């Protein structure tokens, strides 16, 4: 299993203002679902931050997102380790498969993989 990227999730009631603020640092919007917006560096696209009001399909809001190449393997490893699963693995409408787990410091980690599009 390999980590593809790590993205901090910033809770905010001011998503649009946050877009303008981080835009001053060179970030550009690459995804916006209304409740979560991801900004990335055009020169280094894996350098990203997400700003969110609250997670629409999970019982808690994640502190960070970790994209892996095999989310099912990551889920199995976390379950076998006895880690606290806060949100079971599931496919989301926006094209990711994910689960939430609590880390030893109490942070909520959204572990995800993008699903392949038909024809890929």
Tally of separate helices: 2
Order of helices and strands: EHEEEEHEEE
Can you tell me the CATH class? Alpha Beta
The beta-strand count equals 8
Distance, first to last CA? 20 Å
- Biggest sheet architecture: 8 strands, mixed
How many domain regions? 1
Global Rg: 15 Å
CATH overall fold name: 2,3-Dihydroxybiphenyl 1,2-Dioxygenase, domain 1
What is the mean pLDDT? 93
Describe the global form.
globular
CATH architecture term: Roll
Structural class comes to: alpha+beta
Would you kindly provide a written description of the structure presented here, covering whatever features stand out?
17% of the residues lie in helices and 46% in strands. The chain has an eight-stranded mixed beta sheet with strand order 2-3-4-1-5-8-7-6, covered by helices on one side. The mean pLDDT is 93. With 120 residues, it is an alpha+beta fold. The protein contains two helices and eight strands.
List keywords for this structure.
2 helices; alpha+beta; 120 residues; single chain; eight-stranded mixed β-sheet; 2,3-Dihydroxybiphenyl 1,2-Dioxygenase, domain 1
